[in-house]
Amino acid sequence: MTTSGARSRQRLELTFPDAKPLYASGEAVAEASRCLYCHEAPCVAACPTGIDVPGFIRKIATGNLRGSARTILSANLLGYSCARVCPVEVLCVGKCVYNDWHREPPIQIGRLQRYAVETVLGGGAALFARAPRAGRRVACVGAGPASLAAAGYLALEGVEVTLYEKRAIAGGLNATGVAPYKMHAEGAELEVDFIRSLGVTIRTGVEVGKDVSPADLLRDHDAVFIGVGLGADSPLGLPGEDGAGVVGATAWIERMKLEPGFAVGEVRRAVVVGGGNTAIDAARELKRLGVPSVTIAYRRTTAEMPGYRHELDQALREGVRLAEQAVPKAIRRQASGQLAALQLQNGQELAADLVVLAIGQARTGALAASFDGVVVDERGRVAADPATGVTGNPKVFVGGDALNGGELVVTAAQEGKRAARAIARALGLKIRVDAPMGAGHP
Fold first, then answer.
1. Is residue 1 situated within a structural domain?
2. CB-based contacts of 151: which residues, under 8 Å, 6+ apart?
3. What's the pTM?
4. Containing domain of residue 284, as a range?
């Protein structure tokens, strides 16, 4: 399978080596052979999509890579990207029984999953056959993980599915926001092409609410799935914030990943404001790009940081500094307007040539609310049945960030799968693709 885009090779993200390189065949078989193939395996219970982990690993050990990839992708059509970007340390790998024995490291489930899927998809093998055309049409708003998963499962059931994506590139966060040492944009494109190969139509550069109306989608389709991601980076609202040198984290990461010729320039001192995973990623990226001084400024203590501790520990080992209880007060600039420092409420300053804001993103509930009958709560999340994703409009379903406010790629994939099953049932279709629903879902 070939990727859909011939992206410029002059992209900053391509300077980052793969933190967990693809296994060679012998390495994969050796690692798979360590698995104990546990009954009622805790790694399966820890996977939001319910992948049969011992089953796919056993198939790798016996040389059945196609069967291994089928096992993974039947449970999670985004099994490739999840293998690379999931926080496996707190999910499947974190629950491996080897952790309790303290004699051998846990099975590297994510790397084995990547090996099986990437090897098979890279070879162009067809893994699934579509059901006969069902005479049903579904629109998916957004082309991120939730919509891709929903669209893929529906297409396999014979539904005609069209994704509407306002950007020029499909893939959502996987394409624009994943740390490049975990996955480059080409990895997201490989997965998008796989979903497209299932019979899904993806229309990029089409913005719902501008180029096509919600009323038109409802009129022309039997159901609509809303899978839009989060919006623009949230500002601090501080004096001196507007101007050169202060940027939003997701906007900066997207430029670093996708924009040809984008460079760090003369930045010597960078401060990243926030304590979540995006803040940690941005700090690690800046450090790996050669910025001598990188500091994470977090308003509370380390113990209260929402970002994963294993990611923070790695950042600290790489030379990132952490300023705890650092509550921003203002952005100080020189008389010329050049950025000088982030001023804190305790009177201290963090000198900076660049301040990256990673304190959250705007919700995109307004788009969802433009569909008749869809209700958005006070936090900008779409109100829906958690078991099915159906909203106040029985033709409109939702999943991913629009529903949960911003969680994991694997969570979005699971919600897309769940909604696809609910849509198929609502359309009177007999579900034929075996897709485990994962822990806690019907």
1. no
2. 138, 140, 161, 163, 195, 198, 200, 225, 416, 420
3. 0.95
4. 246-357
